[in-house]
Amino acid sequence: PYPTYRRMRETDPVHDHPFGLWMVTRYEDAVTVLRSKLSVEEKLVNAGMLREQYDAIDADTGAGTILSLSMLDRDPPDHTRLRSLVAKVFTPRSVGALEPQVAELVDEGLDRIAADGGGDLVESLAFPLPFEVISRMLGLPPTDHLRIRELSGWLVRSLEPVPDDETLARVIAAGDELAEIARDLIAYKREHPGDDLLTAMIAAEEDGDRLSDDELVAQLVLLYVAGHETTVNLVANGTVALLRNPDQLALLRERPELAANAVEEFLRYDSPVQQTRRVTTAPFELGGKVIPEGSFVSVVLASANRDEAFWGPDADRLRIDRDNARQHVSFGSGVHHCLGAALARLEGRVAFERLVTRFPGLAPGGEVRWNGRINLRGPAELPITV
Ligand code: HEM
Predict the structure, then answer these.
(1) pLDDT for residue 104 is more than 70
(2) What are 320-331's pLDDT values in tens digits?
(3) Strand, helix or coil at 263?
């Protein structure tokens, strides 16, 4: 996508796309939109294909609940209320305490790779690591992981800029089934409370006015899905970037203490979430254009992360020791700034530190197969040899 993003930044950085969305591709504009008071509530979109798609998702169904009641889809004050219920578990300090568990899970993944002399990095490490971490934080009982993985793979296609009708039908079916699974998990947890995030959310719900039943379902699914569908791409895209830039792989192997900064550079270089969205509630002026009220605005984070006007002439180069890599917008910005950022950073740092030091012979093991998504873009299969 990067040559297309570059062309858009150069020729039409605030682009009125015929599908009924405005694409914002420059760094400064992206930050302006993210920090603005634009809404995240898609029900306010009043025109275009996205309006039709929003109407197709019946608000009373499981999918409607999940896709409209999570904190990601709510404006203040509801957003503030929902986010504050879980925020303290995700601070860098709370998350830091998980490092030994994360290291153990990384090592289990690396053991699988060692046993096979390589194999598919997505299957052995990039997927199981974040999936297991968020499952444990939520305190989920053993469930049908494969089914949940398949369903969440469909649900996140709702984040594609314009899903086609067949995809949309599958998104809705997956949302309905996930909502049912979530209700079962909540019922189980009510019977078996623990020292975990889901128990804490249930306590807030039982308290009465802090969280409704449907909101609880929506937050559970959001945390579960956001907890792994993104970090999988950080680990896999970062590995692809290293394999395609052997000088940077050699540098990281020589100086594993660069791993934390390398993670910031991987996030910048190949953003696990390529775009996020906002809705205008009044005409909004940007880059010399006026975006009308009720428009859907796609903020192309991955393009902002490569904008030469901000990063300089080597924006397209991977440099794991880049000084300001942390200024990427891969986690968004403003009130919806990724709640799981500290957790994703921890998982990424520990994974890369250990991957490069344990396997000095890390090399490509075949063609990468991509997941076919525009937004949550990453490898479906990443063959390596060690
Ligand atoms: C929100 C990216 C990992 C939970 C977001 C947003 C982005 C993002 C772009 C939306 C920002 C906006 O629209 O302004 C990422 C990336 C990750 C990652 C790139 C991994 C590399 C995680 C993890 C969790 C998580 C591990 C764990 C639970 C959330 C939640 C929100 C969010 C709950 C909604 C926050 C809100 O609306 O206030 N993330 N995320 N994310 N993320 Fe992440």
Answers:
(1) yes
(2) 999 999 999 999
(3) helix
ipTM, two decimals: 0.98
The two three-digit tokens of residue 193, written as one number:
């409370």
CA distances from 374 to 84, 146, 212 (A): 31, 23, 33
Ligand 1 mean position, distance from CA 273 (Å): 9
* C-beta separation of 197 from 86 below 8 A: yes
Q: How many Å lie between the centroid of ligand 1 and the Cα of residue 51?
A: 24
Query: Distance (Å, rounded) from C-alpha 350 to C-alpha 280?
Result: 39
Cα(254) to centroid of ligand 1, in Å? Answer: 31
Query: Rounded CA gap, 336 and 383, in Å?
Result: 35
- Report the pocket of ligand 1 as residue ranges, CB < 6 Å: 34, 71-72, 83, 130, 134, 222-223, 226-227, 230-231, 234, 272-273, 276, 330-332, 334, 336, 338-340, 343-344
Contacts 24+ apart (CB under 8 A), 203-207: 204/85
Pocket test for ligand 1, best of 228, 338, 373, 375 (most atoms within 8 A of CB): 338
For the chain, the domains span 2-385
- Tell me the CA–centroid distance for residue 386 and ligand 1, in Å: 32
Distance from residue 144's CA to the centre of ligand 1 (Å): 24
Measured by CA distance, the residue closest to atom 34 of ligand 1 is 72
- The whole-number pLDDT of residue 146 equals 84
Q: State the architecture of 2-385 in CATH terms.
A: Orthogonal Bundle (1.10)
Output 156-162 pairs: Cβ under 8 A, ≥24 positions apart: 156/225, 156/229, 156/373, 156/375, 156/376, 157/373, 158/67, 159/273, 159/375, 159/376, 160/373, 160/374, 160/375, 161/19, 161/21, 161/275, 161/298, 161/374, 161/375, 162/19, 162/21, 162/49, 162/50, 162/53
- Assess whether pLDDT exceeds 70 at residue 162: no
Q: How many separate helices (H) and strands (E) can be counted in the chain?
A: 19, 11
